[in-house]
Design goal:
With 338 residues, the chain is an alpha/beta fold. It folds into two domains: 102 residues, no CATH class; 214 residues, Rossmann fold. It contains twelve helices and twelve strands. The strands form two sheets. The chain has a nine-stranded mixed β-sheet with strand order 5-12-11-10-9-8-1-6-7, with helices on both faces. α1 runs antiparallel to α2 and α11 runs parallel beside α12. Bound molecules: S-adenosylmethionine. S-adenosylmethionine binds next to β6.
């Protein structure tokens, strides 16, 4: 929790930074936080128990079940008052112990639309190089909101793309040198995704996505709400499947006249090493069958250091390039100059 608190501070959530520090202290002293998490002390770090817990409490506030906390959480229209937050949080945990014990078993499920900022630059680069429509295949797609990246508006310095009236708008996020000239429009021939646990866009799924956002990060919430409102206009099927099997089916034969782009953002750390290897093998085998009329690309936004790396590999050829870097929630974006 203390490790997460530092990340929350760094990533612009002083509210969660403060609450997690209080929660850590409360857990050590055997308070309600300890009771809510009893039996889970040995959960592996990668399962993100601390964020499962914060999401579970946020869910209650968003659903109108924790009015005192909702009066503080900005995501629920609250004041954001840091001093009043902990007593309200602790009282909520105490009041809903049984439900929280079961809610914390749910995995963290997010769909970070802000990552479209960096992914869009990758798609536009590939469209420009291939001069073909894009066939987009996303693994670990969650609710598929980043598969709809071209429905969003991007403006940063000289660079702009997308419908100026879009409900999702990203502004001024590119730091350092601007990207090269990129196409003003792109044809997307197909979009499809898979996820081991897709999030469906019904009311419960939408609540799930909102609940794992951090309650004082209104810009992320605004972007998510915009993307959820746009989603029905651009239906996308997200198949419930592991990435390697799904790619095996999708990449069985080269697709002529399109540039097939397999992409993923912040997924590989959740995939077992054996499946990760299988994914790479399936893509490389399909890459070996790619031709200039049926090219294949892998676009990956995955952890680097303080920022995530945006890497691309294109076949025929198969050489990997670092295109740029992006914050874990999408901002800032830095373009790599070769
Ligand atoms: C941190 S989320 C990222 C979701 C989305 N890519 C984004 O950037 O918002 C990771 C996603 O990967 C999915 N996932 C994990 N292992 C997977 C696997 N082996 N095959 C397919 N999806 C997987 C999870 O269910 C989860 O939705």
């Amino acid at each position: 929790m203390r490790w997460q608190a530092e990340w929350c501070d760094k990533l612009g959530s002083p509210l969660y930074g403060s609450l997690l520090r209080h929660a850590a202290h409360d857990a050590e002293r055997g308070g309600p936080v300890a009771a809510a998490l009893a039996g889970r002390e040995g959960d592996p770090l990668e399962s993100m128990l601390q964020l499962r817990f914060m999401g579970a409490v946020h869910r209650l506030a968003l659903a109108g079940r924790a009015p005192a906390l909702a009066r503080i959480y900005p995501s629920c229209g609250g004041s954001g008052d840091l001093r009043a937050a902990w007593p309200a949080f602790r009282a909520t945990v105490e009041e809903h112990l049984d439900e929280l014990r079961s809610l914390v078993m749910r995995p963290v499920q997010t769909n970070e639309v802000g990552r479209s900022r960096a992914l869009a630059l990758g798609f536009l680069t590939l469209a420009s190089e291939a001069a073909l429509p894009l066939r987009l295949l996303e693994v670990g797609a969650s609710a598929g909101l980043n598969l709809r990246w071209d429905a969003y508006r991007y403006e940063s310095g000289e660079y702009e793309f997308g419908d100026p009236r879009s409900r999702v708008r990203f502004r001024d996020y590119i730091e350092g040198p601007p990207p090269p000239a990129l196409p003003a429009r792109v044809d997307v021939a197909e979009r499809a995704g898979c996820d081991e646990r897709p999030v469906y866009l019904d009311e419960d799924g939408q609540l799930t996505l909102r609940s794992y956002l951090w309650a004082d990060q209104l810009e992320r919430l605004r972007v998510l709400n915009g993307a959820l409102a746009l989603a029905p206009r651009l239906p996308v099927r997200i198949e419930r499947s592991g990435a390697a099997d799904w790619l095996g089916r999708r990449l069985a034969a080269p697709a002529e006249g399109v540039c097939t782009v397999v992409f993923h953002s912040i997924v590989m750390q959740y995939v077992e090493p054996a499946e990760r290897e299988r994914i790479t093998e399936v893509i490389a085998a399909a890459g070996a069958r790619a031709t200039p009329d049926a090219p294949l690309a892998r676009l990956a936004l995955e952890p680097g250091g303080e920022l995530a790396d945006l890497r691309v590999t294109v076949w025929p050829g198969g050489e990997e390039r670092l295109l740029g870097q992006a914050g874990y929630h999408g901002e800032p974006v830095r373009w790599t100059v070769e």
